[in-house]
Design the sequence.
């Protein structure tokens, strides 16, 4: 049984670019897709990880929208051109490629932040994640009014 990916973990990143994806995240992947992960850049400066079905759904977002050819070229180069398919090792680790480590500013880090977001994970430089979260706080407060949340 698959559950939704959610929560935040701090995990170690070794000098070879290997990190262990928390087992609770891997167990949230569909049972027949728990050995593999598809990694690519995020919209923000992070690495995004998908299981096979969620990668298909992510790609469908682009064809379901009215994008210009230039926008499609950019999407394909940036997200599809940077993607790698990886298999977890016996310790539940995956190796991040150098181009994604650079993109997400993970060089020389010993710990990274891994976040589960419904059908994907994001791998972040913890300082960058906190900085971007702080910048987005006003958006969160605006949403509070739009969503009519009572507190």
Sequence:
């Amino acid at each position: 049984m698959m559950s939704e990916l959610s929560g935040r973990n701090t995990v170690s990143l070794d000098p070879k670019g290997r990190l262990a994806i928390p087992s609770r995240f891997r167990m949230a992947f569909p049972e027949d897709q728990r050995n593999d992960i598809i990694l690519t850049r995020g919209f923000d400066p992070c690495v995004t990880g998908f299981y096979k079905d969620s990668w298909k759904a992510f790609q469908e977002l682009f064809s379901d929208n009215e994008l210009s050819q230039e926008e499609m070229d950019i999407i394909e180069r940036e997200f599809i051109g940077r993607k790698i398919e990886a298999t977890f090792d016996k310790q539940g680790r995956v190796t991040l490629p150098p181009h994604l480590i650079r993109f997400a500013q993970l060089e020389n880090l010993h710990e990274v932040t891994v976040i589960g977001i419904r059908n994907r994970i994001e791998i972040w430089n913890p300082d960058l994640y906190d900085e971007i979260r702080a910048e987005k706080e006003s958006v969160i407060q605006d949403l509070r009014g739009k969503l009519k949340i009572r507190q």
